[in-house]
Amino acid sequence: MRRWNGWGDDQFSLDLPEQGGDFLSARIGGGTALPDAALDHVCAQVPESRLPVDPLVTDLIDKSPEVRVRHARGQSLADWLALRSGDIGLFPDGVALPQTNTDVRALLQYARDHDVHLIPYGGGTSVAGHINPVEQGKPVLTVSLAQMKRLLDIDRQSQIATFGAGTPGPLVESQLRAHGYTLGHFPQSFELSTIGGWVASRSSGQQSLRYGRIEQLFAGGRIETLQGTLDIPTIPASSAGPDIREMILGSEGRLGLITEVNVRISKLPEQESFHVVFFPDWEQARTAARKLVQNRVALSMLRLSNPIETETQLALAGHPRLIGLLERFLSLRGADTGKCMMTFGVTGSKAQCRATLAEARKLCGRYQGVYTGTRLGAKWAEKRFTMPYLREALWQMGYAVDTLETATDWDNVDNLMGKMESCLRNGLADKNESTHVFTHLSHFYGQGCSIYTTYVFRVADNYQETLVRWQHLKNTTSEVIVRNRGTISHQHGVGKDHAPFLSVEKGQLGMQAITALTQSFDPSGLLNPKTLLD
Amino acid sequence: MRRWNGWGDDQFSLDLPEQGGDFLSARIGGGTALPDAALDHVCAQVPESRLPVDPLVTDLIDKSPEVRVRHARGQSLADWLALRSGDIGLFPDGVALPQTNTDVRALLQYARDHDVHLIPYGGGTSVAGHINPVEQGKPVLTVSLAQMKRLLDIDRQSQIATFGAGTPGPLVESQLRAHGYTLGHFPQSFELSTIGGWVASRSSGQQSLRYGRIEQLFAGGRIETLQGTLDIPTIPASSAGPDIREMILGSEGRLGLITEVNVRISKLPEQESFHVVFFPDWEQARTAARKLVQNRVALSMLRLSNPIETETQLALAGHPRLIGLLERFLSLRGADTGKCMMTFGVTGSKAQCRATLAEARKLCGRYQGVYTGTRLGAKWAEKRFTMPYLREALWQMGYAVDTLETATDWDNVDNLMGKMESCLRNGLADKNESTHVFTHLSHFYGQGCSIYTTYVFRVADNYQETLVRWQHLKNTTSEVIVRNRGTISHQHGVGKDHAPFLSVEKGQLGMQAITALTQSFDPSGLLNPKTLLD
C-alpha cells in the first residue's frame, strides 16, 4: 500500500550500504532519528468537514479522516516533516474522486455554487507545495483524478495517444507498450506522478534529450474550467496566435482541471543502452557535455555528476571491492581525485545507436573521458525510479535530504552551481552543523542546462528546529538562484513554496500576464489558491 | 531599390521559361495583364496626416506621401491588387523610424497621450494583412523597426545572439556568419522579413527540421509595451509557470513592440547538401516522408511535392531537353505519371551527414524512391528565396498566384489536402474559369505536417472582379481548412485576413484567454487593432 507519510509503496525499501553511512557520518556527523507519528493519531486530529452538502456531488466525495490525511500533503521536505511529526495543520475538507468529465463539471459547479476551493490532485508527488490546502476561511475540496487513468485512444498514423489525466507513469507506459509505443517521459517521480500532473507542472523526464519535455509531448487535451470546457485540438504546429497549450502547461490548476491529455508518442526503439564515462576534472567534463549537445549528438539521456556527487555515488553504491578496482582502473587513465561521472543514453535504430555511440565516445575522448561501458549505466537505469526511497533509509538514520534545481545558460553554470552549493554548505554554520552538498547536470540544451543539487543534513533534536533549518537553506538558496539568472524551477514547478520567488524571472509584466489569465478563467479565485501566484 | 508595389528589389527579376507559359495556358487559358498604377499617381491620393504634433516624437516621424504609400500594405494578393490598381484606400498617417528603445518608449507614450493607433512594422512581408491600417476614426502611426538592425551581443558559450528586432534575414545571417554561426531560420520571405517579425508572427523556416521553428529559436528579449518594458530573460527551459515567451510569439503587435530578440544560434555546419528523390506515387511518397520524420532520421529539411506540383515544377524549370532525359530515366525506374518529387537536406558534421544520408536513402528505397543526387537539390537551394519574384513574371502575363497553408495530423493530411485543392480548383467554375492548383508538404513533425497549396488563376478584366474572385477562393478554402482540423496558418500568421477563422481552432475559451492578455497589456486597444482578434 502507498506509504501515508513518505515516498512510495510501503512494501518496498532501499537500504543504504554500511559504507554509505560511514561516508555521511565522516562528513556531517552521525544522525539520530526523530520519532514518527502514527496514522491513527493523526486521523484523530482531523476536524469535521466544512463542505456543504449538495446531492449533485455527494457520491463523489469522501470525507473520511484517513483519506483526507492521505491527500493533505505532497513530498517536499516540509511536507515530510509535517507527516512524520503528525503536526499537519490543515487538511482538505474532503476528497472527490471523479470518474468522468461530467463528474468534474459537477464539482466545478459545486465549487461555484457554494464558494468552495478546489485543489486538483494527480499523484500527490509535488515537492513544491502544489496540493497543500491553505486557510482562507473557505471549505477546501481536493479533487483526485486517480480514477481517470485509461488510455482512451491511440492514432498510430499520427502517433497521438489520449489518456485520462490521472494516469500514472507506469500505466502510461504499460498501456502504450501493449501497442508497441512509448511516451518516453520519465521523471524521477514516474512511479506515482500522473500525465495530467506533468502537464500542469511543466515536467521534464530523464530522457528529454530524445523525447522532449512535456511541453513538446503535450499535443492537446481537455480542460474543465469554471467558464466551461476548453478543448485544445491536436495540431502539429501553428502560427495562429499565442499557443493555448502553453498557457495550460505550468498553470498548476489555476485555470481549470485537466481531464484528458493528448500526447505525442514514439515507436518503441529497437535498441537502448546507457553508458558511463569518467573525466579527470569538472572543466573537461562540463565542456564535453556542452559539446555533445551543441554538436547535436543524438543522445537520449545525459547526466553529469560533479566531483562530490561522483565520490558520493561511488561511496553509496556498495560493492567496495568492485568500486576499488574501478577507481584504480580510472586512476591509471588520469581520472583520480576530482573525477566526474557522465552517464549517457543511446536509443533508436541499430544504425542510429551505432553512429551516435561512436560519435559520443570520440567526442568524450577528446576531453580525456575514460569510457567504462554499460555496466554502471545499467545500474543507473535499474535504480532510476527508486532513488526517492533512499530518503526513507536516510530518515531512519537521522538525516534529512532534499534537492534544489534550476537551469541557466552555459556561461553561468559554474557560477550558479558554485553559489548554490556554497549557500547550502555554509547555511547551518551558525548552528555548528555541516551539510553534505553535491550536484549533477541532467537536462541539456544548446543554450545551457539544468543544475540539480542535493543536500543532506542531520535532523535537529526536534521537528520545529529541523523545519527552521530546512526553511533557511531552502529560502536563502532559492534567492541565490533567482538573483543569479536561474529559473526558480527547471522541473519541479512553482507551487506554493516557489511562488514568492517567481516574479524575479517573470518580471512585473509577466506576473501581470499570468494574473490576467487566471482571473479570466477563475475570477473568484476558487482554484488552487496561493499556488503559482501567492 | 525596393519595389513599391510588389515583391523585392526592382533590379531583380525572374522570367518564366517559355514552356512554363505554354503549360499554364494549356491548363487555365492565356492571360491578359491588368494595367499598373504609377507611384506618383498613388502618392497624389494620400490625404493629409491626422497625426497630432508633439515635440516628443516629431523627429522620429516621416509623413511624406511616398513613405506612407510604401508602408501601407503587405504582400497578400489583396495587397498586391490594391497596390497594382492604385486603389489602396487607407494609408498610415505617418511612419516612425525609431533607433533606440527610448525612441520606442516615446512613441508608446505619444500613442497613449494622443489616442493614436500604432502598427509595428518589420519587413512588410505579411501575406495576412498584419500591417494594414484599418479605419477606426483615429490617426494611425506605423512604427518601422528598420533602423534597429544590429547584432547587439553574442555569447559563444551559451550560443545566444541578441539582435535589434528590425534585422532582416540576410543581415541576421551575415552578422552571425562573421563569427562562425548561423541562426538557421529561412522562411521564403527571408530576403525582407525581420527577426522581430518572425517572433511576432510565429514564423517557420525551410530548415525547421534541424533548427526548429522560431518558437524554439526565440530565447528571450525585450518588448516595449504600454505598461512598461517587458524583459524576458534567457533561460534554457523552465517549469516555472506559463511561458511568457509563448505569449509574445504570435502576438502580432497586440501586446507591445518587440525591440530586441535573443536567439539560439548554432555553429556553421561542416557540410550541407540537398538531395532529390522521386517516388512512383503519392501514397509511397507520403508514407516515406512520414517514416523519415517518425524514425527521427536527422534531416535538416524535407519537402514533398504532390504529382501536380511535381509536374508543374518540371514544366516551369526550363531546360526541356534535360528534364526530358530525367523523366525517361525515372520512367524506366517506375516513377512516371503520378510521380512525386521529394527534396531533403542533410546538414551537420561529416560523420552525421554520411550516416543520415545513408539512412534516408535506405528508407526512401523501401518505398520505391529513385534517388537522383544533388543536382536538383542544389537548384532548389539556389532559388529558395527568389520564388516570390515569380509572382511578378506571372502578373505580367495576366496571372494571379497565391498560396494557402495549414498543418494537420498525419491521419488527416490526404483528406484536408484533397478538400483544399478541390475547393480551389472548382472555386471559379461559375465564372467559367479554371484554377491551376498544386501542393507540397514542407514542415514535418512526428504528428503531422504542413500543407502548402499554390493556386494560379487568370486575372479578370478589371481589378474589382479579380479581387472578388480571390476573396471567394481564399474565404471558402479557409473555411474548409478550419472545419477539417487544420490550423488557419502554419507559418503565415493570423493578421486581419485570418482573424475571422481563428476561433474555430482556439475555441471560445481560447479566444477569451488571448483577449485577456491583450486587454491586460493594452486596455484601450491602441496596438495593431483588428489584427489577430477582429
UniProtKB/TrEMBL annotation, chains A, B:
Residue stretches making up the FAD-binding PCMH-type domain: 88-268
Cofactor: FAD
GO biological process per UniProt: lipid biosynthetic process
Name this protein carries in UniProt: FAD-binding oxidoreductase
PROSITE patterns assigned to the protein according to its UniProt record, in alphabetical order: FAD_PCMH (PS51387)
This protein's UniProt keywords: FAD, Flavoprotein
Annotated binding of substrate, by residue: R391
Chain positions of site Important for enzyme activity: R303
Keyword Flavoprotein on entry: yes
Any coiled-coil regions, as ranges: none
Annotated active site: Y452
One function term, GO molecular function aspect: FAD binding
Family in the record: Belongs to the FAD-binding oxidoreductase/transferase type 4 family.
Gene3D superfamilies with a match to the protein in the record: 3.30.300.330, 3.30.465.10, 3.30.70.3450, Uridine Diphospho-n-acetylenolpyruvylglucosamine Reductase, domain 2
Taxonomic superkingdom: Bacteria
Annotated binding of FAD, by residue: P120, Y121, G122, G123, G124, T125, S126, E252, G253, R254, L255, G256, L257, I258
